[in-house]
Structures are given as structure tokens and as C-alpha cells.
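Dear colleague,

Thank you for sharing your sequence with our group. We've completed the structure prediction you requested, and as agreed, I am returning the results in plain text so they can be pasted directly into your records. Please verify that the sequence below matches your submission; if there's any discrepancy, let me know and we will rerun it promptly.
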Amino acid sequence: MTIAPEKNPQTGICQDVIFPPGDIYSDEPPLESDLHLRQIILLLTCLEWLWRDRNDFYAAGNLTIYYSPYQRKSEFFRGPDFFVVLGCDRKTRKSWVVWEEHGKYPNVIVEILSDSTSDTDKNLKKTIYQDTFRTLDYFWFDPNTLEFAGFHLLDGEYQPLQPNEHGHLWSQQLGLYLGVHEGLLRYFTPDHQLVPTLEEMAQQAERLGAKLRELNIDPNTI
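Please find the predicted C-alpha cells below.
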């Protein structure tokens, strides 16, 4: 940040003028609780592992999106709890700056509801994501009440998604279902299989190895 003296034309006294840095970091407010943080990390890490061989997307949590038509970072910005942009380079970013990303907005947004943000997420942000971002898939989830809803942009307006027999909602953009599992929002494959975390995969491998050893089969030889 640069600070330069400037003379006040009325008083003739020099005062400091603060110029914001040109490439600022995301500056989102603290998360509501550790449960909200855990939920965001879960969505991020599971998708990054599932798409580990892909380099055409960007996923982030609690990161600012700057979208000023005048290319100013001091106005028109929002920080979704979790979002995914498709058709872009998979690289680290300090923030998502629309005019530096060929005009791309998120394809998918998930907001984690809380008492302090619920009204904004369901109204103001929903309108911005529909009318300005044109984000095709928008979801919200409350980890305390387990309220879960999703919308798909059709003819310029969000239409509510209907749950399947498992209570899961389809994300056309991700090619995955989202649904509540053990109190948290998780991904499910098109054939309704839970997308596991690395820890869950390790536990599955351990159980399989134990079963094979019960059958006198060395899992290391398979």
C-alpha cells in the first residue's frame, strides 16, 4: 500500500492519501463457525481429488469475486462461500477478478447459511447470481438445520431443483449430485455413490485389506 502526502486546497495542510494496492488479496469476513469452515474444506478437497487429472477448472472457498464494469476493486464484489469456475486454468489465485479472467463468472456457487447471512443468501445474493453472474447452478445449505435447496438458471431465471429419491439435487455443471450425508453437504456420482474423502478412501482400503487377509489373501499381491 502506498501513502503519499497531498495538500488540502482549503486548509493548505498536507494530509496522507492512501492508495490501495493494485493486486489485493481476498478479504472476506470470518466464517460463522468451525462447522462452516469444515463444510467448505470438504466441498473443496473432495472435488479437487475427484478432478485431480483435470486442469480446466478453478474451485475456491470464502474468496472475493470482483466484477466491477469499471474494473475497480473498490466496488462490486462478493465472496461466495464456495464456487467453481469451468473452462479456466487451474492455478492459485488471490481473488477472482472477472475482467482478468476473460469475463468468466462461476458456473456453480454454494452458500453455507447462518443466522446472520441466511436472508442475504436467499435474496440479495440469489438475485446477483441470477441477474449479474448468470451462474447456472446455485445451492444453499444450512449445516445446523440441514436446510438444502438448489436452483438452475433457465431462460434467465432460477428454477428450483427437484430432489431425487435420495433427496439429492443434480448439478448439471458439475455432473454430480449434491446431498446431505451425516450432517454435511457431499458430492454423489451419477450412480449415487458418495464421493469419498482421502481419509474415507484410506479406511475403505484398510477394511478391504483386513477382509482379504481373513481369506488368506495378501492384499499386496493383488
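Summary note from our side: The CA atoms of residues 89 and 144 lie 35 Å apart.

Kind regards,
the structure core
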